[in-house]
Amino acid sequence: MGLGGCILQAEYGRKMNRILVFFFSVTTPFGIAFGMGIQNIYDETSPTALIVVGVLNACSAGLLIYMALVDLLAHDFFGPKLQSNMKLQILAYVAVFIGAAGMSVMAIWA
């Protein structure tokens, strides 16, 4: 989602967009094949593996939080419709905090 949003915002030419979409669509199958290739030598309980997984999870979470706050919410919260209506603005902030609290509660079991 983050990379797709960046590709759209960059407004490259048609050829560059096709190249970026190609690499964007190839990375997941490549990652799956790579994971299948190393599954026999990968020890998921080793300290190194736990650190790598923790760092990659933190990077993924940071990217998703950035995309949510900067690209998605900022566009809505600073739009003229929300800026002109204080009641709607308060409801929007309450909805964001309820959503964040709900995701935090669900993280307990993740």
From TrEMBL:
<feature type="transmembrane region" description="Helical">
    <location>
        <begin position="90"/>
        <end position="109"/>
    </location>
</feature>
<protein>
    <submittedName>
        <fullName>Zinc transporter 7</fullName>
    </submittedName>
</protein>
<keyword id="KW-0472">Membrane</keyword>
<dbReference type="GO" id="GO:0016020">
    <property type="term" value="C:membrane"/>
</dbReference>
<keyword id="KW-1133">Transmembrane helix</keyword>
<feature type="transmembrane region" description="Helical">
    <location>
        <begin position="20"/>
        <end position="42"/>
    </location>
</feature>
<keyword id="KW-0812">Transmembrane</keyword>
<dbReference type="InterPro" id="IPR003689">
    <property type="entry name" value="ZIP"/>
</dbReference>
<dbReference type="Pfam" id="PF02535">
    <property type="entry name" value="Zip"/>
</dbReference>
<feature type="transmembrane region" description="Helical">
    <location>
        <begin position="48"/>
        <end position="69"/>
    </location>
</feature>
